[in-house]
Amino acid sequence: MTGQFSAGLVMRTQVRAQSMPSLVSELVSRAKRQVSTRLYLANVHMLMEAADDPAFAEVLARSDFVLADGKPLCWWQRLVNGISCPQLRGIDLVLALCRRAAAEGLRVGIYGGHAEADLQSAVHRLQQLVPGLLVCYQHAPSWQPYPASAEPQQLQLMQQAQLDIILVALGCPKQEVWIDQYSAQLPALQLGIGAVVDFLSGRRRQAPRWVQRLALEWLYRWLQEPRRLAPRYLKHNPRFLICLCRAWWQQHSR
């Protein structure tokens, strides 16, 4: 089953625009059929990393789904490509997918998080929000420099768990490269979910809905983690806006 969707280039990456219900139905169908699937939730940071690193751009090009987690990507789709593109936030997609997974009896694994205690808290909260969810594997690996690698023992445990869905929370670009490297060994639906484990565990706070609607979630997160996020935002955000304005001008001056 294939959902109805549109797609357009944002920077140099093909980004899919699809409604949440259609997307979740398509992902569950793939998971039930054990179709190896790589899904990444893109924001400005991810696309600018791809613009600066051709090898990472190839990782995104090999994916099955790149979706707009960041509001500026939705602006690009509408202003440059003429596509109506819903924002698909990671936490919202994970909850919607896990609800369907619980209803279908699908087996879920989570790989990532800052520490085992944080991951346990996140799994506990997720199972509170989604009663009946089968979390059959969880592991918070120790920190590794980019690119991250998986321990052979953990790969074996994931395979033995017969997972249908693997949620990978290593942060961008580690998680996307990890999924790309190991997807052939893990015949399951694999999602890079970024900070979702931190949101579920309470380690980080989500922006209020009104802040999200104003497209100021980036500012809310910056105020929480100024030292970590300031270099990223100052490096990427102005360049993305310049590229967006240039692409809009080229599109409308033809």
What's the total count of β strands? Answer: 8
- What's the total helix number? 12
Order of helix and strand elements from N to C terminus: EEHEHHEHHEHEHEHEHHHH
Share of β-strand residues: 15-25%
What overall form do the CA principal axes indicate? Answer: globular
Low-pLDDT windows of residues: none
Q: What is the domain tally?
A: 1
**How would a crystallographer describe the biggest sheet?**
6 strands, parallel
Q: Give me the CATH architecture, please.
A: 3-Layer(aba) Sandwich
Mean pLDDT: 92
The residue fraction in helices comes out at 40-55%
Protein name: WecB/TagA/CpsF family glycosyltransferase
Keywords: Glycosyltransferase, Transferase
InterPro entries: WecG_TagA_CpsF
Organism: Rheinheimera tilapiae
For this entry, give a set of tags:
single chain; 254 residues; alpha/beta; Rossmann fold; six-stranded parallel β-sheet; two-stranded antiparallel sheet; 8 strands; 52% helix; globular; transferase; WecB/TagA/CpsF family glycosyltransferase
Secondary-structure blueprint of this entry?
Blueprint: E1 6-10, E2 13-17, H1 20-32, E3 37-42, H2 44-52, H3 54-61, E4 65-68, H4 71-79, H5 90-104, E5 107-112, H6 116-129, E6 134-139, H7 152-160, E7 165-169, H8 174-182, E8 189-192, H9 196-201, H10 209-213, H11 217-224, H12 226-252
Parallel strand pairs: 3-4, 3-8, 5-6, 5-7, 7-8
Antiparallel strand pairs: 1-2
